C-alpha cells in the first residue's frame, strides 16, 4: 500500500496463480483509490446457490464445468439442516446448498424460486465500516457484524439485502492481523473432488467471475442502480436504453454498476414494453420475483472451454449462421484472434467497441425453470457486455421461449 491507486491480488487470485496483467485482461480490473471509497469491496467471496439436489449439482459442476471440490458441510460434521458443497475454479468459489431436513428454511426458498443464487457474497477489508455506511444510506441490514471462529481462525461477517430474496454477505477474512486459514468458512471441513478428470482435460475451464446480472421488476432498475451507488459506492459503467436492445417481441433496459476496482460488476435489467412477453418477464414469473439472471465466467481460451463444456453435454443458445455471414457484422467486428469460421462452428458471439473486442456465449437455463444461466466470456480490451450482440442473442432466446410456450 505505497501508492494512492494500488492494486493487489486477492488471496483467492494468488491461490489460483493468477497475475494482475491477466486479470486486467480477463475481467477489466482497474486501479482506484480504496481510501476514498465509502464501502471498499475487494472482490467476490463466494456465489451461494440454493438447489433442489446439492449432491448431484456438486457433481455436475465438477464433471461438466471442471470445478474442484474444496470444502463441505453436512450432517456428517454436525450440520443437520442442509448439505453444502464448496467448489472452486481459478479465483471463483461456488457454494451449492440443498436441504436435508424437511424443516430447513432452504425448502421454502427452493419451493418459491427453484434453483438459483441466494447470496452474492463479497470480500471486504472492513465489515464494520461497510455496515456503518449501509445503515447511513438506508440499506436493510440482515445480519449485524459478528465473528465466526473455529480451529482455523476467525472470519467477520455481516449481510445486507439486495433485490428480491438475494443478499450480499460481507466477508472479512483478515481479522486482528490473522488471515482465516480454513477451506471456506468456520464449520466447513476440507473436501476433495469425488470426480476424476478425464485424461487430457484442461486444468480448469474458467479463471474468474466477470459479472452477475440482476433482473428486477419494471420501473425498478434505477432504484437498484441508486442502491449500489448510494449504499455501496459503486460507479456507473455503461448504459443501454430501450431500442438498443429490443427485438420485435422482447425488450429490456439495462444499466451497469461496478465496484472501484471493477472486479465486481452488476448489470441490472428491467423489462421494457414490447409486443409480447419479454425474457425478463419470463424470468420474474418463474423465479417469483427479482433475482440473479446470469453469471459471466471469464476464460482466456473460450474455444477450448466451449469445446470441453460441449463434450460434457452443456447446452448453449443457438446462433443463426446468418449472424456470422452478415457483412455488417463482419465489418463491425474486424480482426479477432481466430478465424470467424472457428467462432461460427461453436456459435460464439463477437462484439467490439472503442477499447477492443470480446467473445461470448450463453448457456441454456441451468435448472428446470427458465431462470439462471451462465455466460462464458473472453475479453480483449473491451470493457463492454456485448451490447451489439443483444439483438442476435434475444432472437435466439425467443426461439427457446417460444418452444416453452411462454412468448
Ligand atoms: Fe453478461
TrEMBL record:
<dbReference type="InterPro" id="IPR005956">
    <property type="entry name" value="4OHPhenylPyrv_dOase"/>
</dbReference>
<protein>
    <submittedName>
        <fullName>4-hydroxyphenylpyruvate dioxygenase</fullName>
        <ecNumber>1.13.11.27</ecNumber>
    </submittedName>
</protein>
<dbReference type="GO" id="GO:0003868">
    <property type="term" value="F:4-hydroxyphenylpyruvate dioxygenase activity"/>
</dbReference>
<dbReference type="InterPro" id="IPR004360">
    <property type="entry name" value="Glyas_Fos-R_dOase_dom"/>
</dbReference>
<comment type="similarity">
    <text>Belongs to the 4HPPD family.</text>
</comment>
<dbReference type="InterPro" id="IPR037523">
    <property type="entry name" value="VOC_core"/>
</dbReference>
<keyword id="KW-0223">Dioxygenase</keyword>
<dbReference type="Pfam" id="PF00903">
    <property type="entry name" value="Glyoxalase"/>
</dbReference>
<keyword id="KW-0408">Iron</keyword>
<dbReference type="InterPro" id="IPR041735">
    <property type="entry name" value="4OHPhenylPyrv_dOase_C"/>
</dbReference>
<keyword id="KW-0677">Repeat</keyword>
<keyword id="KW-0479">Metal-binding</keyword>
<keyword id="KW-0560">Oxidoreductase</keyword>
<dbReference type="InterPro" id="IPR029068">
    <property type="entry name" value="Glyas_Bleomycin-R_OHBP_Dase"/>
</dbReference>
<dbReference type="InterPro" id="IPR041736">
    <property type="entry name" value="4OHPhenylPyrv_dOase_N"/>
</dbReference>
<feature type="domain" description="VOC">
    <location>
        <begin position="208"/>
        <end position="364"/>
    </location>
</feature>
<feature type="domain" description="VOC">
    <location>
        <begin position="43"/>
        <end position="173"/>
    </location>
</feature>
Amino acid at each position: 500500500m505505497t501508492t494512492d491507486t494500488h492494486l493487489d491480488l486477492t488471496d483467492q487470485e494468488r491461490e489460483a496463480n493468477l497475475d494482475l496483467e491477466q486479470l486486467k485482461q480477463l475481467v477489466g480490473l482497474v486501479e482506484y483509490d480504496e481510501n476514498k471509497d465509502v464501502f471498499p469491496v475487494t472482490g467476490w467471496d463466494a456465489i451461494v446457490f440454493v438447489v433442489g439436489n446439492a449432491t448431484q449439482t456438486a457433481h455436475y459442476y465438477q464433471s461438466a464445468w471442471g470445478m474442484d471440490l474444496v470444502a463441505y458441510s453436512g450432517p456428517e460434521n454436525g450440520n443437520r439442516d442442509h448439505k453444502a458443497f464448496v467448489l472452486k475454479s481459478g479465483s471463483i468459489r461456488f457454494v451449492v446448498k440443498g436441504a436435508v431436513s424437511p424443516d430447513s428454511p432452504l425448502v421454502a426458498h427452493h419451493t418459491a424460486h427453484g434453483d438459483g443464487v441466494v447470496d452474492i457474497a463479497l470480500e471486504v477489508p472492513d465489515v464494520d465500516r461497510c455496515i456503518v455506511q449501509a445503515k447511513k444510506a438506508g440499506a436493510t441490514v440482515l445480519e449485524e457484524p459478528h465473528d465466526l471462529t473455529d480451529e482455523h481462525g476467525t472470519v467477520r461477517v455481516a449481510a445486507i439485502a439486495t433485490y428480491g430474496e438475494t443478499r450480499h454477505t460481507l466477508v472479512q477474512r483478515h481479522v486482528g492481523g490473522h488471515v482465516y486459514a480454513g477451506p471456506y468458512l468456520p464449520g466447513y471441513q476440507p473436501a476433495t473432488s469425488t470426480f476424476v478428470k478425464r485424461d487430457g482435460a484442461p486444468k480448469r475451464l474458467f479463471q474468474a467471475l466477470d459479472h452477475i446480472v440482476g433482473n428486477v421488476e419494471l420501473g425498478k432498475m434505477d432504484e437498484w442502480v441508486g442502491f449500489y451507488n448510494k449504499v455501496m459506492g459503486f460507479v456507473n459503467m455503461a448504459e443501454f436504453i430501450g431500442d438498443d436492445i429490443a427485438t420485435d417481441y422482447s425488450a429490456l433496459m439495462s444499466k451497469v454498476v461496478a465496484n472501484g476496482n471493477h472486479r465486481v460488476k452488476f448489470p441490472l435489467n428491467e423489462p421494457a414494453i414490447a409486443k409480447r412477453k419479454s425474457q425478463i418477464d419470463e424470468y420474474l414469473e418463474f423465479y417469483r420475483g427479482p433475482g440473479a439472471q446470469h453469471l459471466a465466467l471469464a476464460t482466456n481460451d473460450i474455444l477450448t472451454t466451449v469445446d470441453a463444456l460441449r463434450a460434457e453435454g452443456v447446452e448453449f443458445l443457438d446462433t443463426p449462421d446468418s449472424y456470422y455471414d452478415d457483412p455488417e457484422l463482419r465489418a463491425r467486428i474486424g480482426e479477432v484472434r481466430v478465424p470467424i469460421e472457428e467462432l461460427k462452428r461453436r456459435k460464439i458471439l463477437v462484439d467490439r467497441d472503442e477499447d477492443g473486442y470480446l467473445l461470448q456465449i450463453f448457456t441454456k437455463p441451468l435448472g428446470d425453470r427458465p431462470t439462471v444461466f451462465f455466460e462464458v466470456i473472453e475479453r480483449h480490451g473491451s470493457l463492454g457486455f456485448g451490447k451489439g450482440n443483444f439483438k442476435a442473442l434475444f432472437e435466439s432466446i425467443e426461439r427457446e421461449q417460444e418452444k416453452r410456450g411462454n412468448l
